[in-house]
Amino acid sequence: MATSPLSACSNVHHVLSTDNARRCCLRQDGVAPGSPAAVQEEAAAALCTLCLKNTQNQDSVRACGGVAGLVALLAPGCSAGVQRRAAGALANVCSLNVRNQDSVRVCGGVAALVGLLAPGVAPAVRARAALALANLCLTNTWCQNSVRACGGVAALVALLAPGGSAALHQLAAGALANLCMRNA
User: Which DSSP state fits 27?
Assistant: First the structure.
């Protein structure tokens, strides 16, 4: 019997919370079995994959509360691996999906993503946060204005400084371009 996308997303969302993560184990690759970070990282990775160019799964994640769960995983107390996977999942959840973009904004995700652009944050986390912001801002004026209000323009410009990777520069430039899309 096949699992529906809503059911699959609901199951993955269930393990995003720390309490549920303590009781689960999804990985056996050397990461502490059952550790909340390992389970949360795998759950975010699963949502990232499920939502890649799949509107039905994107909508299912929103419907079962997965957007708020992913935003919670951007918190400073989470590991860099969890933050990276959560930002990547949000990038896919929001890709060309205005309702999900608005949901991320309402859940406080814009401020959390802008916070991940700060110096001292792991480069891979900063890159995924820039990608998520780019997808949030593509033609969504509300998200564009929210990124501006949270200091996102200055944070993205700072990522363009010499010394950063070409990939990070490209993602920051893309996010800045999307901030201007249909919103002069």
Answer: -
